[in-house]
Each structure stands twice: as C-alpha cells, then as structure tokens.
Write a structure and sequence with these properties.
Length: about 120
C-alpha cells in the first residue's frame, strides 16, 4: 500500500493483526501504544514456534518512543532483541534474561546435534 494512503487506523489494525506490520508504518504514525501492541503481538503463526513472539518488532520502534517496559517485554520474548534496546535500559537483569532466553534455543539445537551424532550416516 502506498505510504500516502496509510492512516493511523489502517496501520493500527495491521499491527494488531501482526506485530511485524510495524516495519511498514510511517514514522509519524508510530505511537507508543501501537509499538507496544506490536511487541506484545505474536508473529506469523506459520513459522516455527520459536519465532512466533514478536520481541523483534522492537527494532522498528523509534528510539524516542522506546520504554523500559517495551524493552523488557521484547527481551522476554526474544533474547536477541537485546541488540535493539537502548543502552540506558540495559541492566544486568535484562542482559541475563536475554542470555537465558537465547540459551533455551541453544539447548534445543544442542539436543538435535547430539541426536544426529548417534545416527550412522
């Protein structure tokens, strides 16, 4: 949809349906409530369940709108979202939460590799 036809109402509905839509919302229409909705929203349900939570939407939130709450929610859903957290919100606890979230994914892949190592090729 051409950017000049995107209204706050249309963009809000799109973000409500999929947080990934925040990427396509024009900057002037990105309001804190819409951004928080995007972060809380589940991603595309057709992808693997580990990619469903939309903490990654934090990358599309303008820096001046980001809040501590948004950052904490994003990292709790996707540890890698820590890279989009402003330095002023990075705490020891938030960094540890990101590590633990990512460690869960590492354990999943480690288990797969261990299983494969027992399979004779």
């Amino acid at each position: 949809m051409p950017e000049n036809l995107r209204t706050a109402e249309i963009c809000g509905t799109a973000v409500w349906q999929s947080g990934n839509a925040l990427e396509y919302v024009p900057e002037p229409l990105k309001m804190p409530e819409m951004c928080l909705t995007a972060i809380r929203q589940e991603g595309d349900k057709h992808y693997h369940k580990s990619t469903r939570w939309n903490g990654y939407a934090l990358q599309y939130v303008p820096e001046d709108i980001k809040t501590r709450e948004m950052c904490e929610i994003a990292v709790s859903q996707a540890g890698k979202a820590l890279e989009y957290v402003p330095e002023k919100f990075k705490t020891r606890e938030l960094c540890l939460a990101a590590i633990w979230k990512m460690a869960g994914h590492l354990n999943m892949y480690q288990n797969i590799l261990l299983q494969l190592s027992f399979v004779k090729m």
